[in-house]
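Dear Dr. K.,

Following up on our conversation at the group meeting, I've run the structure prediction for 2OG-Fe(II) oxygenase from Acinetobacter suaedae. I'm pasting the input sequence below exactly as I used it, so you can double-check it against your construct before we proceed with anything downstream. Let me know if the numbering doesn't match what you have in your notebook.
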Amino acid sequence: MQLTALPTSWNIDQILDDLNKLGFALVDNAYPLEYVHDLVRECGLHLEEFRAAGIQNGVVSHIRSDHILWIDDQLPVAQRHINTLQSLSQVLNQAFFLGIKEVEAHFACYNAGEFYALHRDNPQQKNDRMISTVFYLHEHWQQDWGGQLHLQDKNGKWHTIQPQPNRLAIFLSDILHEVLLSKQQRLSITAWLRSGNSIWNN
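The predicted structure tokens came back this morning:
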């Protein structure tokens, strides 16, 4: 893993406490605005390359309608975010013994009328996704534009998380969640911190 220092604005103790008690955590004002501007620009330059996420091997899924672009070394601005998540992985490994080994991520675009129905990123622990993250990279958002992350915490309580610009949502991959219908174009980076042989200890 290529490690990058975590932003000083991130309250790591709070993140760990919230993940432990609730199964999710939020980081607002995650990055300097200059970096967010560069990220939005890089995303926008590649929007024509996005593909429908709900089509896999020619089969159409009816639970999602967003569009995605996987992030690799050809997207250097977004790769900086991935490097930061790799550093976060080391902190989570030390705190929760998750054995996270890698980060996979893609840009996500929800156009008006698009959504992602209720699901789990790691249903019944059938894959190696341990932690899911969503970083909202649009520069402006209004509450009545929809696109909220709706999730159920470890205690069974439901939360509606606004896709506030420069906000990072972090949650256990086996948590039930959905993306509510968006009324405006909503841009984000979805990433999973993956481990091939670890199980979250509840």
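Two things stood out to me. The two ends are 27 Å apart (CA to CA). The longest strand covers residues 102-110.

Best regards,
J.T.
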